[in-house]
């Protein structure tokens, strides 16, 4: 199979997955849930959570907060570079049938900054207290899915955001101590 056929096959399957999440599982309760939870990956929430842990946390949670702040800062450098270098239009701008909600974003889609941010913040916390991973990792994954559900990102945008946030956080934690 040639490279162009592989790329076309991947794009086709990604678009199908996007349409499934964005259109087939729509429900009023999911609209409310995803509209709220998506903000956990936003700048305000992610900075506030990490800052509160750094300022008010005790012991390993305080260190996790400091690590999260550093990882959050560093992880958005590759995000900014990739958004400029690979200016992918947001799905709702490409697919007219996309269901969007309040205030759709207009900057580039790839990679997902919200997904990057939530993983940048949770991974140091999971290292500090591994049992937190049982709650935090599913929450972070749901934030990523929310970005697709709300018509703002393709699945690969969120997967790459997850990879960037997780990798930067792991490196930050490893070099910290």
From TrEMBL:
It comes from the Bacteria. CDD domains: PAP2_like. GO terms for molecular function: hydrolase activity. Keywords: Cell membrane, Hydrolase, Membrane, Transmembrane, Transmembrane helix. SMART domains: acidPPc (SM00014). SUPFAM superfamilies: Acid phosphatase/Vanadium-dependent haloperoxidase (SSF48317). The chain crosses the membrane at residues 37-56, 63-82, 117-146, 158-176. GO terms for cellular component: plasma membrane. Residues 63-173 form the Phosphatidic acid phosphatase type 2/haloperoxidase domain. The keyword DNA-binding does not apply. PANTHER family: DECAPRENYLPHOSPHORYL-5-PHOSPHORIBOSE PHOSPHATASE RV3807C-RELATED (PTHR14969:SF62), SPHINGOSINE-1-PHOSPHATE PHOSPHOHYDROLASE (PTHR14969). This is Phosphoesterase. It comes from Paenibacillus oryzisoli.
């Amino acid at each position: 199979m040639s490279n162009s056929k592989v790329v076309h096959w991947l794009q086709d399957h990604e678009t199908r997955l996007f349409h499934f999440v964005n259109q087939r599982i729509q429900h009023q309760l999911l609209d409310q849930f995803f509209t709220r939870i998506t903000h956990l990956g936003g700048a305000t929430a992610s900075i506030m959570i990490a800052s509160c842990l750094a300022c008010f946390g005790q012991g390993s949670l305080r260190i996790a907060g400091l690590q999260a702040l550093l990882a959050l800062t560093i992880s958005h450098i590759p995000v900014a570079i990739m958004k400029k270098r690979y200016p992918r239009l947001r799905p709702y701008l490409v697919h007219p049938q996309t269901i969007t909600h309040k205030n759709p974003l207009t900057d580039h889609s790839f990679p997902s900054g919200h997904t990057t941010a939530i993983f940048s913040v949770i991974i140091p916390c999971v290292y500090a207290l591994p049992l937190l991973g049982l709650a935090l990792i599913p929450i972070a994954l749901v934030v990523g899915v929310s970005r697709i559900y709300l018509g703002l990102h393709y699945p690969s945008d969120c997967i790459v955001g997850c990879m960037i946030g997780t990798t930067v956080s792991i490196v930050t934690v490893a070099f910290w101590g």
